[in-house]
Specification:
The protein is α/β, with parallel strands linked by helices and 373 residues long. The protein has 13 helices and 14 strands. The chain is globular, with a radius of gyration of 20 Å.
Length: 373
């Protein structure tokens, strides 16, 4: 295995050459309405206040209320589309992908927060009403307070129904350059959906000369049992005969999955490598805050990112990283430069509170290379 330094100039050239390539992508299956929330430290007057800036300060305020009580004021800074799937899809649409979304985006009508996404998408198939997340944002992280009632309506039977039956489902999936089935932790029936695709759809899929990519994101599996997590990992490996399986994790999730397999390495790099060897998949990609790394085809790659000390928005940064990495893989770009594409996408997002277009990324790469960020 080798560590290779990525070239921003090379990636810029590759993106410029491939910017008009139309990729067919299918993303699902969650959907949330996100409220981005700031926590008040001290209110000066009706219009102005200072924020609680870090999680420790917020935690200390809560701890001081033990045995007593306290009042905590929350201010909604923004209401936006949420969920790993919609944020990932929205970012891929900004790149110009020909994308269909299948997920919890409203019933019987599409919820207004998803309308911009649905207007750009080739197709949107709604499974049920979305969940709701209160995202408490701090400078050193965020607390995602989720309300998931109703997401048990996302089932394999419903998935097939909205796509028009098993044969049409297989036909739709067979055309994808990228299939992403994300947010396993919050979708109670996700493992059943994965198993059903393997059992029912695989026999109907043609063999392709170049296997398409399939991307999985667990979305913080801490609350799930070890048995559930191990089963999910086994299912992801079973997609390999028809797809190149990519599992995306953040740093916390990497150590949780490593623990499931009894991996207790001293360094981040070794933890990633040894966990990857246990999974039996094409690629494991991990995005800490300041850098990113992956193992793909048996090799280890690492890049430093364009770290932003004062981000405008962090909720969705990981999904934007995943979008960049997945775009690179769908375009046939190397794992190393796909990592660079991922950190550039998230770097733009946290600075601008929106996902970049290809032209935005091209300019971002130039600014990063010249030290203008």
């Amino acid at each position: 295995m080798s560590i290779v330094e990525a070239s921003k100039t090379e990636l810029h050239s590759q993106l410029s050459a491939k910017k008009d390539v139309k990729l067919n992508m299918i993303v699902g299956v969650d959907g949330f309405v996100d409220e981005i929330i700031h926590v008040v430290a001290q209110r000066k007057d009706f219009k102005s206040f200072t924020r609680i800036m870090n999680i420790e300060e917020f935690g200390n305020r809560i701890v001081r209320a033990a045995g007593l009580s306290t009042n905590i004021e929350l201010v909604t800074a923004q209401t936006k589309l949420g969920g790993n799937g919609p944020i990932l899809a929205n970012a891929l649409l900004e790149y110009g992908a020909d994308l269909s979304y299948i997920g919890a985006v409203g019933s019987p009508d599409i919820h207004p927060v998803f309308k911009p996404m649905s207007d750009k998408a080739a197709n949107v198939y709604s499974l049920c009403e979305p969940g709701h997340t209160d995202a408490l944002e701090f400078m050193d992280g965020k607390l995602m307070l989720g309300k998931h009632a109703g997401l048990d309506a996302i089932t394999w039977d419903r998935f097939k129904e909205v796509l028009g039956g098993l044969e049409k489902t297989a036909d739709t999936l067979s055309k994808a350059d990228l299939l992403a089935l994300v947010n396993w932790t919050m979708i109670p029936n996700m493992s059943d959906i994965w198993q059903s695709i393997i059992d029912e759809v695989f026999p109907l899929l043609p063999d392709r000369k170049e296997k398409p990519a399939i991307f999985f994101d667990l979305a913080d599996p801490e609350k799930r049992t070890i048995e559930d997590i191990r089963h999910a990992m086994d299912l992801i490996s079973k997609f390999e005969p028809k797809f190149k399986s990519i599992l995306g994790l953040n740093k916390k999730e990497l150590y949780e999955i490593a623990a499931v397999y009894g991996v207790a390495a001293e360094t981040f790099e070794d933890t990633l490598k040894y966990t990857y060897e246990k999974l039996g998949i094409y690629c494991l990609v991990v995005h800490p805050t300041k850098d990113a790394a992956c193992c793909a085809n048996g090799e280890y790659f690492h890049v430093d990112g364009p770290y932003c000390e004062k981000p405008v928005l962090t909720t969705g940064a990981g999904d934007n990283f995943n979008a960049g990495f997945c775009l690179g893989q769908a375009l046939g770009i190397s794992p190393l430069n796909s990592l660079l594409l991922g950190v550039s996408t998230s770097g733009f997002y946290v600075r601008n509170a929106k996902s970049p277009s290809i032209d935005d990324l091209l300019k971002f790469l130039i600014d990063w290379e010249s030290g203008k960020l």
